[in-house]
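Lab channel / #folding
Pinned by the channel admin:
"Please post every new chain as: sequence first, then the structure tokens as a reply. Keep commentary short and put observations after the output so the thread stays searchable."

First post following the new format, from NK:
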Amino acid sequence: MNWTNCSRREFLNAVALGAAAIAWPGCASAPRKDKNQTVRERPNIVFVLADDLGWAELGCCGNKFNETPNLDALAREGIRFTDAYAAAPVCSPFRAALMTGQWPARIGITDYLRPNDSKHLATDCLTLAEALKQAGYATGIIGKWHLTGYANHGAEESPPNVHGFDEVIVSENRGIASGSYFHPYHFNREIEQRIQPREHLVDRCNLEAVEFIQRHKHEPFFLYLSHYAVHTTLQGRKDLVAKYEKKPGAGKGNRAGKNNPHLAAQLELIDEGVGMIMTKLDELALAGNTVLIFTSDNGGEDRVTSNAPLRAGKSTLYEGGIREPLIIRWPGVIEAGGACAAPVSTVDFYPTLREIAGIKSPPAQTTDGVSLLPLLEGRKTALKRDTLYWHYPLANPHFLGGKSAGAIRKGDWKLIEFFDNGSAELYNLAEDISEQNDLAAKMPAKVAELRKRLAQWRKEVGAKTKN
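Reply from TO:
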């Protein structure tokens, strides 16, 4: 492969990262046309990712305790996907699927990466950031990467700047476990404080996001705002925690299993940041030419929140571990206030955003996802694909309770196959979203059908049964 070196844009008042950005050689891309066949400029793309945020946490998804007015407004102005799935029930494999459009099993990253992990996202993968950079986009990541081990822990490091990101801001260079939400941040001790008197991490990421948009207002840009919140250990800003502690039904402390005031406080700041982005886009007259996406990487930890009516949470292949909030706004293309029940997956963002950006060249690698553009434009209500897959092999059970397993959803049917004992569970999600009625014993033919298809898929993608 032919690589070129290019200088990193100087980031205003940011952390000096000191490394050269590496990018793929540029290629031309044609402007796309909208439904009326009028030429549309290449739209900006802002992808906002929350960490460990469950499906049921937003007001627009029915939550009555958390306050998310900006995300609720985003849903009213865009489309909300009710059956959006993370490609994995934990962090790193989701992010690998997002960057490549491939199932985590194909990439070989099926569990979260440890700080000293020998695995990392391979540099021969053409990432979403690299593809957009080829098409002339300015690219930036603010926040969590988690697709590598870290040199500070003795690992071979593969940071965002070697995967197509021009600007890498408030990103980690050490292990990120246990949370670190007030400056100084243990995951990157070189980050200098900008907000006084006490800087909260979500506030800092929000500030950097609107400044990135301001810097790149005259060119197409891809901003990946990847929040560390609401990953445990939860630490909300004191004033907001106090606000939620006073609400009726509030839980106590940052380990409250329902109506967690620390989670609500962190989520309010994420929501505030979405509002700041929306305001900035309006101020710069960019809202009409910007695709704004909000989602999460996996389900909420059910020890600090409730994913009800979904079962279980992060680290499991039950709905609470993999079904996510997903909202997309694109004024003039997406009809406001819509809801879509088509099952979609993390792997679909890659082909969708390539098509939105007008990238005509075929991808340089296998793409497992499908473009959602027909759904966004209202040309279709369903996709030709009707099957989604998960592969989550573990040497030992996850500390949150997840077990080594695989899963398949075909239509309304979902099967979970547990690798340790060979058992399987079968659910009809149209009738049993909470996965309380296991139909495996009553429907052995359906179990056999889905197990056979899941085994075929594992063979097709080269899935390994041990992580």
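NK: The domain at 389-461 is CATH 3.30.1120.10 (Arylsulfatase, C-terminal domain).
TO: also worth noting, The chain has two domains: 42-385, 389-461.
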